[in-house]
Design a protein that fits this description.
heterodimer; A: mainly alpha; MetI-like fold; globular; B: alpha/beta; D-Maltodextrin-Binding Protein, domain 2; 2 domains; 13 helices; elongated
Chain lengths: ~325, ~350
């Protein structure tokens, strides 16, 4: 007996053809390849930059690494005392200020916004403004720092000091910390929270035992990004007192008393300064390249610490 | 428990990094230690009671701000001074001559670097705040007028420059257009004109206008400024790159920057006494017409109150300052007579 026909002849033929023909999804392949090309272009540009900088700075970095890390700002590029010590101390303290001020404040604000804030117009308005703040040009934060911390809070910060710079940059990265921490907290599965409530946890216990551990890796990624942004900023520092020519004192990393002394130096500023100096004294180009490598290593070290912590939390979460 | 372990780990990591960095920093710290002296008992300041001070040693700090052009001279002087007086902390910043005078007249700085003499309005500000100063001429900077290497033009007059970049040249796209203003100009080729120069925040911009453009603009009843439509940049490297990019470009930067530039041609300038090329000799003698003097302004009261400021300026006035330091960073030394005049104004303050 003839097989019952479920579909019409024509449809049947098309289906058979479609299944037998070797499918070549041309548009899909093109899309995939173009994605790969965009990735390669980005990597290529990054690679060229890094190779170029490392090659330019290689002579100084291998020739006298200790002298360069321990040296100070000088007017001539062939001075054996030329180095980044003052700038490294400044950037180190800016990083400490960002970590101590921006992280707890930002994460706290994010928890409140996600878990406690009523979902009404006011909360939405606050969130909208935080998002806007993240897009404000850094020089505006520099002006804020100049007015608020350098002028009005002179007694606390010591004027154009590393303290003013640290607080200014902490405020600069605060919106980024809040936004990324919010995203991480929002990604915590609802089931986890309900489970915690189900066994009788209070809101605080639920946040501490479920939300924070689960969101920790995401929060750390955000803080890592904001830290890198903060220590790479040059423009606001010029307004709050980074000097461009010479810094009289050469403080150690733990000279706490110098944190609110006038005048300081930071890595991004010294890089800008040396690049400009290379017009007058071409040897400064190599010094600037070496300083860029030092700053990159500094950023990688802080990031490595954050990644280490993130992996730790991820293991706990699993 | 886990949290504690984590905390210990984090703190440990930070400490290790900080120690490594601090250790690197330390190998330089003992390099500048003061040598003990027999007369170590006379303590000027109590900043460093544990370090016996050398004979005649002073301690304290000197704060300098102002012109970014003069900045390297003041820094170089401070570096040489450091070998003599290691306990004086000299800090130098270079936001620009105008910003420097603003701070100076508020009494924020001890010394102001300037690539031009103080303006009347700035002097009034100083007077209002009771800040008295000594003006000291320390060196000379020429402004190099440049074009691309392939340009047949060798020499330009002030009138030519006014025609090329003055306020009335807005929109001019060819060198030959400079002749259309009715000024007496050289015969300039009908070639594309691309202009590059420092932006108006720069001391070089002000000096260029004051030296070259101002007189002609005044005569013609025009504002003393440049045409607005040129490629302005604060970075002299970018200006030189711009000039390199075209054979018939036109631009100007400080002579110190042009000395290391390749791929550009320095134009001779005729300031009324024939064409003169820019080099160290013609700038020092004042023959090259587009040159300017560099100054430091010392706050009189602060110099009197602080032995550190006085010692620093004294050192600035020595051969190591006005001679070595100025030349080290690429500027032109004053002539002997002019150095004598500068020293006399400091001595007679």
């Amino acid at each position: 007996m003839a097989r019952a026909r479920l579909v019409g002849d024509r449809t049947n033929r098309m289906m058979v053809q479609a299944m037998q023909r070797r499918s070549t999804d041309v548009r899909g392949r093109v899309f995939q390849i173009s994605l790969l090309v965009t990735l390669l272009i980005s990597l290529f540009i990054l690679g060229v930059l890094i190779v170029d900088v490392v090659m330019d700075g290689w002579g100084i970095l291998t020739g006298r690494p200790g002298g360069f890390l321990g040296g100070t700002m000088r007017s001539l590029s062939d001075d054996p005392k030329l180095g980044v010590h003052q700038a490294l101390v400044g950037t180190f303290w800016i990083a400490v200020f960002v970590a101590v001020l921006a992280f707890p404040l930002g994460i706290g604000a994010a928890i409140w916004l996600e878990e406690y804030a009523p979902k009404n117009r006011i909360a939405r308005f606050i969130e909208l403004n935080i998002r806007n703040l993240a897009g404000v040009p850094s020089i505006v934060y520099g002006l804020l720092g100049l007015l608020l911390f350098v002028k009005h809070l002179r007694d606390v910060t010591g004027g154009k000091s590393i303290a003013s710079a640290g607080i200014t940059l902490a405020i600069l990265v605060l919106p980024i910390v809040v936004i990324t921490a919010q995203e991480a907290i929002r990604a915590v599965p609802q089931g986890l929270k309900e489970g915690a409530y189900g066994v009788g946890a209070t809101k605080w216990t639920m946040i501490r035992s479920q939300v924070l551990p689960y969101a920790a890796p995401g929060i750390l990624t955000g803080t890592l990004l904001s830290m890198s942004r903060g220590i790479g900023e040059a423009a606001p520092l010029l307004l709050v007192g980074a000097v461009s020519g010479r810094l009289g004192r050469d403080s150690g990393f733990f000279d706490l008393g110098d944190i609110n002394e006038e005048a300081f130096m930071a890595m991004p500023v010294i890089i800008v300064e040396w690049v400009q100096n290379s017009g007058r004294d071409p040897g400064f180009a190599a010094a600037a390249a070496a300083a860029i490598v030092v700053l990159l290593v500094f950023v990688i070290l802080t990031n490595a610490a954050a990644i280490f912590l993130r992996n730790h939390f991820e293991k706990r979460r699993g | 428990m886990r949290l504690q372990k984590l905390l210990v780990l984090a703190i440990g990591l930070m400490t290790v990094f900080a120690l490594v960095a601090a250790a690197c920093g330390n190998d330089d710290d003992d390099g500048g230690a003061a040598t003990p002296s027999p007369s170590g008992q006379q303590d000027d300041g109590d900043d460093e009671p544990d370090q016996p001070a050398p004979a005649g040693a002073v301690s304290g700090s000197v704060t300098i701000s102002g012109s970014s052009t003069v900045e390297p001279i003041s820094v170089r002087v401070a570096e040489l001074f450091e070998d003599v007086q290691p306990d004086v902390a000299v800090t130098v910043d270079g936001p620009g001559t105008g910003d420097g005078f603003k701070l100076f007249c508020e009494g924020e700085t001890d010394i102001s670097d300037a690539s031009r003499p103080i303006k009347d309005s700035e002097a009034e500000d100083c007077a209002q705040n009771g800040v008295e100063w000594v003006e000291l001429r320390v060196g000379i900077d020429g402004i190099a007028v440049m074009t691309g290497e392939g340009n047949p033009v060798e020499c330009v007059t002030f009138n030519d420059i006014y025609g090329l970049v003055g306020p009335e040249s807005t929109g001019f796209g060819s060198w030959a257009d400079a002749g259309s203003l009715g000024l007496e100009t050289s015969s300039l080729p009908d070639a594309a004109l691309d202009v590059y120069g420092p932006g108006e925040e720069s001391g070089t911009f002000d000096s260029f206008i004051e030296i070259v453009l101002e007189d002609i603009a005044d005569e013609r009843g025009q504002a003393a400024t440049t045409r607005p439509d040129y490629n302005a940049n604060a970075d002299d490297n970018v200006i030189i790159q711009g000039i390199q990019s075209s054979d018939t470009s036109f631009g100007w930067v400080g002579f110190a920057f042009s000395a290391n530039a390749t791929g550009v041609k320095l134009l001779d300038v005729d300031g009324g006494d024939g064409c003169v090329g820019a080099n160290a000799g013609t700038i020092a003698s004042g023959e090259y017409p587009v040159s300017r003097s560099l100054y430091i302004y010392v706050n009189r009261a602060k110099a009197e109150a602080s032995p550190a400021v006085t010692a620093y300026v004294d050192f600035y006035m020595s051969d190591e300052g006005l001679g070595t330091a100025v030349a080290d960073v690429g500027y032109v030394n004053l002539t002997d007579d002019a150095m004598g005049a500068t020293r006399a104004s400091w001595a007679g303050r």
